[in-house]
């Protein structure tokens, strides 16, 4: 939703050999030494401080570290004060297994051809 002014001509180019070096925190201007951090923080390229900071800046975008996804999302994906993104919290409630696109089509098709709500109305009338 936000159109950040592209003040820098900085393109996200990764140096070759990426993965061999000690990763650094993704947050703009952060110089934390992740080699001293726990494995968790190294793996997700965030320092401990910024994994708990409610608002950080990454490439000029306001982001927050999601404790559920273990990655950064933009702030709009969080409810205020939450450490997990809205999507994830939502998914906890209703995500059980992925519905198959085919099954969905079949279902809605049969629903359309057989609308519920007025089944045995006339039947009940006749009964009276
Ligand atoms: Zn950091
Ligand atoms: Zn998330």
Description:
This protein is of the alpha+beta class. It has 5 helices and 3 strands. It has helices spanning 39-43, 48-51, 86-94, 101-113, 121-127; strands at residues 56-58, 61-66, 71-74. It is elongated, with a radius of gyration of 25 Å. It binds zinc ion (ZN) (2 copies).
Key phrases:
128 residues, alpha+beta, 5 helices, metal-binding, SBP-type domain-containing protein, SBP-like, SBP_dom, SBP_sf
Short description:
This protein is an alpha+beta fold.
Cα-atom radius of gyration: 25 Å
Shape: elongated
Report how far the terminal alpha carbons are from each other: 60 Å
Structural class: alpha+beta
Uncertain stretches? none
Count of DSSP H/I helices: 5
The total beta strand count reads: 3
Provide the spatial order of strands within the biggest beta sheet. 1-2-3
The portion of residues forming beta strands comes to 5-15%
Query: What is the mean predicted local confidence, pLDDT?
Result: 77
Write the layout of secondary structure elements.
Blueprint: H1 39-43, H2 48-51, E1 56-58, E2 61-66, E3 71-74, H3 86-94, H4 101-113, H5 121-127
Antiparallel strand pairs: 1-2, 2-3
């Amino acid at each position: 939703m936000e159109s950040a002014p592209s003040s820098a001509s900085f393109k996200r180019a990764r140096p070759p050999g990426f993965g061999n070096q000690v990763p650094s925190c993704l947050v703009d201007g952060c110089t934390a030494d992740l080699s001293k951090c726990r494995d968790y923080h190294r793996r997700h390229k965030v320092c401990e401080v910024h994994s708990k900071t409610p608002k950080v800046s990454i490439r000029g975008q306001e982001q927050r570290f999601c404790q559920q996804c273990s990655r950064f999302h933009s702030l709009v994906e969080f409810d205020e004060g939450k450490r997990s993104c809205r999507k994830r919290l939502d998914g906890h409630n209703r995500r059980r297994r992925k519905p198959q696109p085919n099954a969905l089509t079949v279902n809605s098709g049969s629903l359309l051809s057989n609308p519920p709500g007025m089944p045995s109305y006339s039947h009940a009338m006749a009964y009276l």
